[in-house]
Amino acid sequence: MQINRSILRRSYANIGDYVALTKPRVMSLVVFTALVGLMVAPGGIDPFTGVVALLCIAAGAGAAAALNMWYDADIDAVMARTAIRPIPSGRVSRSEALVFGLMLGTCAVLALGALLNMAAAALLAFTIFFYVVVYTMWLKRRTPQNIVIGGAAGALPPVIGWAAVTGNVGLEPLSLFLIIFLWTPAHFWALSLNLAGEYARAGVPMLPVVAGKTETKRQIFLYSVILVPISLLPCALGFAGAIYGAAAAMLGATMIFLAWHVRRSHDREWRPARRLFAFSMLYLVLLFAVLLMNAAPYAQSH
């Protein structure tokens, strides 16, 4: 019995390591924004379509994360924030992560195409490719605009969700794409302000490393300001109501207020950037949650 318990414990540890490769916290946000895209799409959604779409999108996000960790294992080993990940800590080999990511991504795309439609499957495949090849392999180590351009991958899940229901893409899901796309730089640069030293040691040209903290703070504030009118596009396009509009305005004003505090803070102050980073997560969750509630009548009536 002791031997069997030892084997069982080791098996669970391995499962946990592979789950960690998928970046579960990031995946949860991806799945949530995809769910909003599913639910607000016109025509409604049956339970089978919704479950299949979300499982495939989650698997695709997990595959992209695993392939990102496979390629970035050398960088992850240098940075304290990522050194405990499965590959640099030695719990999973790079080759195992590569095979796992490729298999998971392939299964996700094929299942989505076979069970739902090719438009959603093609978008999922493109998202994985963009995140792994364009962002991770090409942009991340070459340009301080890596997170700006690469953020397109993280902004596509609600578009995939919409396409899973309708089989096409319109202005409505593209407005959701723009919201996440413009939210990403302020969110991630707020984190990178306090990690500039680690990124410099790893050789990653994040904006605070290349352009300095003052310029990074300026751009964080600029993106936060631009985000507010873009967040009101769902109202302008008619698939969100006044409640969403009021919530978007209030959340946007708070985002600008915190970004302004970051801009005026001294370089050695870490709390303003940390507050903005924490709120930016809450911002996106609340914004999409209110959209989900306020857009339900629209979805049912089309």
Automatic annotation (TrEMBL):
Its EC number is 2.5.1.141. It catalyses: heme b + (2E,6E)-farnesyl diphosphate + H2O = Fe(II)-heme o + diphosphate. Keywords: Cell membrane, Heme biosynthesis, Membrane, Transferase, Transmembrane, Transmembrane helix. GO terms for biological process: heme O biosynthetic process. The keyword Transport does not apply. HAMAP family: CyoE_CtaB. The keyword Metal-binding does not apply. The chain crosses the membrane at residues 26-45, 51-71, 92-112, 118-139, 146-165, 177-199, 220-240, 246-263, 275-296. It comes from the Bacteria. This is Protoheme IX farnesyltransferase. One of its GO terms (molecular function) is protoheme IX farnesyltransferase activity. Converts heme B (protoheme IX) to heme O by substitution of the vinyl group on carbon 2 of heme B porphyrin ring with a hydroxyethyl farnesyl side group. Its main location: membrane. Belongs to the UbiA prenyltransferase family. Protoheme IX farnesyltransferase subfamily. It is found in: Cell membrane. One of its GO terms (cellular component) is plasma membrane. Carbon 2 of the heme B porphyrin ring is defined according to the Fischer nomenclature. Pathway: Porphyrin-containing compound metabolism; heme O biosynthesis; heme O from protoheme: step 1/1.
